[in-house]
Amino acid sequence: MPYKSIIFSSILIILFFFNYQKGSKKDHFIVLQSTTSTRDSGLYDFILPKFKSAYGIEVRVVAVGTGQAIKNSMRCDGDILIVHHRESENQFIKDGYGLYRKEFMYNDFVLIGPKSDPADIGTTYSISESLEVIKDKKSIFISRGDESGTHKKEIKLWNLIEFKPNPKKDKWYYSVGQGMGSALNIAINKNAYILSDRSTWLTFNNKKEHTILVQNEPNLYNYYGVIPINPKKCPETKIDASEKFINWLGKGETKSLISSFKIKGQQLFFTIN
Q1: 120 Ramachandran zone, left/alpha/beta (phi>0; psi -120 to 50)
Q2: pTM, whole model, 2 decimals?
Q3: In sequence order, which residues have a C-beta less than 8 Å from that of residue 26 and are 6 or more positions away?
Q4: In CATH, what number does 108-220 get?
Q5: Is 210 helix (H, G, I), strand (E, B) or coil?
Q6: Is 68 strand, coil or helix?
Q7: How many whole angstroms separate alpha carbon 126 and alpha carbon 9?
Q8: DSSP 8-state secondary structure symbol assigned to residue 99
């Protein structure tokens, strides 16, 4: 074989090996666009190492609000989406960005307020009755106002009493455009009411004189869906690894793992059969 041919063949072998290693390394992780509550609660830190141990695939989490997670996924900045606003998720799939939605767990929202309870909603009102009283008494209410799943849920709850809050008109209603932790801090500083997911509230360290006032009713349930990004829209998405992760979420041992996750003795997430 001529000398030049040997050199050329050697270069091809090196390039092939390099690209193989590069591709192989790349396939060892997937990017999960996610809502914040699952990250902030510590759930991902609890379960994702088990998936990596079983499949050798790292799940890299980008935790933002539901609205931003969906926007990021539409820009192909991820392989999987986990959020908690069914209408937005269904639209995401309808628009061709997601292949399907698999509902795999739920937790719940709670209405937080000062222990002094200036609106006097007590602990016996339903969420719709409580919001009605807050509106009528013009008690300060803090909204995340950030298009997150929590914000969208809050708007849906106001719709139960046929009310659309207007921050410019309703001076007692503050739309702060912040994440859950920052919004909770504002609510506490203003002695105000706020809707939060339970997991964030339990891990929140600045509760002061605030407490849960309304909880444990169907209107406050919070369902999480997992969606693989459509490779027709995003050709670089790692669909095989993504579906391994989705199938793993549905396994009995994974459901038991999620159910065993607790904060201060309380189970936070409940799996769906």
Answers
A1: left
A2: 0.81
A3: none
A4: 3.40.190.10
A5: strand
A6: helix
A7: 75
A8: S
Q: Compute the distance between CA of residue 157 and CA of residue 175 in angstroms, rounded to an integer.
A: 15
The alpha carbons of the chain give a radius of gyration, in whole angstroms, of 23
What's the farthest any 2 CA atoms get from each other in the chain? 92
Please name every residue paired with 267 in a beta bridge, in sequence order, or none if there are none.
Answer: 262
Q: Which residue has the tokens 């709670």?
A: 110
Residues 6+ apart with CB under 8 A from 210: 112, 113, 114, 115, 187, 188
Can you say how many angstroms the Cα of residue 197 is from the centroid of all Cα atoms in its chain? 10
Whether residue 148 contacts residue 65, with contact meaning beta carbons closer than 8 Å, is answered with yes
- 225-270 tens-digit pLDDT: 999 999 999 999 999 999 999 999 999 999 999 999 999 899 999 9
Tell me the two tokens of residue 128: 């719709």
Nearest partner of 66 among 133, 147, 121, judged by Cα: 147
CATH 3.40.190.10 is held by the domain 3-106+224-271: yes
Q: Which one-letter amino acid corresponds to residue 267?
A: Q
Contacts of 105 (CB under 8 A, 6+ apart): 223, 224, 258, 269, 270, 271, 272
In this structure, the strands spanning 102-114 and 221-228 are antiparallel
Structure token digits, residue 217: 């009713």
How many residues are recorded in the chain? Answer: 273
For residue range 77-136, list pLDDT tens digits in order: 999 999 999 999 999 999 999 999 999 999 999 999 999 999 999 866 799 999 999 999
Torsions phi, psi of 250, nearest 5? Answer: -90, -5
* Intrachain domains 3-106+224-271 and 108-220 with the same fold: yes
Residue with tokens 């009605």: 132
For the chain, the structural domain boundaries read 3-106+224-271, 108-220
Distance separating alpha carbons of residues 271 and 121, to the nearest angstrom: 31
